[in-house]
Amino acid sequence: MVTLRTIRCTFVVCVMLFLNIKSSEEVKITLIESAVAKGAVCLDGSPPAYQFDKGFGDGVNNWLVHMPVCRKLSTRYIFTK
């Protein structure tokens, strides 16, 4: 049975996703070309990269690191394309 709390939480998540998707600014990708010479490459052989966006408000001095995880070999293969 779906509770009112579940509906509210789902609504909040949907609103948050909508606001994030509609962002007008795109965070640029920075490639680390110098890492290739040291053997640090992605699964497809391309140079590693990162995205950085300055924080604001209470989060100005905080970091968020997102590292996608592949649990299945088939998923890892998708990331190499």
UniProtKB/TrEMBL annotation:
Pfam families: PAE
Origin: domain of life: Eukaryota
Principal place of residence: secreted
Entry GO MF terms: hydrolase activity
Signal peptide: 1-24
Compartments (UniProt record): Secreted, Cell wall
EC number: 3.1.1.-
GO biological process entries: cell wall organization
Enzyme type, top EC level: hydrolase
Keywords assigned by UniProt, alphabetized: Cell wall, Cell wall biogenesis/degradation, Hydrolase, Secreted, Signal
Functional summary from the UniProt entry: Hydrolyzes acetyl esters in homogalacturonan regions of pectin. In type I primary cell wall, galacturonic acid residues of pectin can be acetylated at the O-2 and O-3 positions. Decreasing the degree of acetylation of pectin gels in vitro alters their physical properties.
Family from the record: Belongs to the pectinacetylesterase family.
Protein name stated in the entry: Pectin acetylesterase
Originating species: Helianthus annuus (Common sunflower)
